[in-house]
Amino acid sequence: MVAGGTGLASLRAALYSLLANRDRYSSVSLLYGGRTPDTLLYRREYDDWTRRGLRLETTVDRATSSDQTSSWAGHVGVVPQLVDRFNPINVSNAVIYCCGPEVMMRYTIRSAMQRGFQRNQIWVSLERNLQCAVGICGHCQLGGEFICKDGPVFQYNLVDKLLSVESF
């Protein structure tokens, strides 16, 4: 799993399901990043997750928070860098679930594909402009898909061309 910022909230239920069925998987990992140490979600749960078999890698964009009270001894950088340096990995027997800002997901996917992942091994959670939640208003439409009723989780090979369009 790869999450940025509040994207971890969307992946948390899936993470707990993986941990509850940990014996079914050879490896379960979470690569997670936030802007600063004080913006990382669920920090009190990290020890429990790792005890249950999760490999957890975290990073922050900046090591100091706005109030300058937190100290951070971990990795400083962006989430795709965690993908770049993640080892060992058996790409032929792995999937990625990714949720976070679209720019983070774009570069995470690029890093994953450089590591050998195929588009159909990557799942993205798209949560944009949800308003009516039933596909009537069209605010969440992405190409022919309505994020609210067709997603929000999509296999990347089904939305890759739509996500490659950058808005200014």
Can you characterise this structure?
With 168 residues, this protein is α/β, with parallel strands linked by helices. The protein has one domain (2-125): Rossmann fold (3-Layer(aba) Sandwich). The protein contains 6 helices and 9 strands; from the N terminus they run βαβαββαβαβββαβα. It has helices at 7-20, 46-51, 79-85, 102-114, 147-150, 156-163, and strands spanning 2-4, 28-34, 54-60, 75-76, 96-99, 122-125, 141-142, 145-146, 153-155. The strands form 2 sheets. Strands 4-3-2-1-5-6-9 form a 7-stranded mixed sheet, sandwiched between helices. Helix 3 (79-85) packs parallel to helix 4 (102-114). The chain is globular, with a radius of gyration of 16 Å.
Quick synopsis:
The protein is an alpha/beta fold. Helices cover 31% and strands 20% of the residues.
How many distinct domains?
1
Any low-confidence stretches, pLDDT <50, length ≥5?
Answer: none
Question: If you average the pLDDT, what whole number results?
Answer: 91
Query: Within the largest sheet, what's the order of strands?
Result: 4-3-2-1-5-6-9
CATH class assignment = Alpha Beta
How does CATH name the architecture?
Answer: 3-Layer(aba) Sandwich
Give the SSE order as H and E letters. Answer: EHEHEEHEHEEEHEH
Number of strands: 9
Our estimate of the beta-strand percent is 15-25%
- Determine the CATH topology: Rossmann fold
Helicity range of the residues?
A: 25-40%
Give the overall shape, derived from the CA principal axes: globular
The CATH homologous superfamily name equals: Nucleotide-binding domain of ferredoxin-NADP reductase (FNR) module
Distance between the termini: 28 Å
Largest sheet: 7 strands, mixed
Q: Which structural class best describes the helix and strand composition?
A: alpha/beta
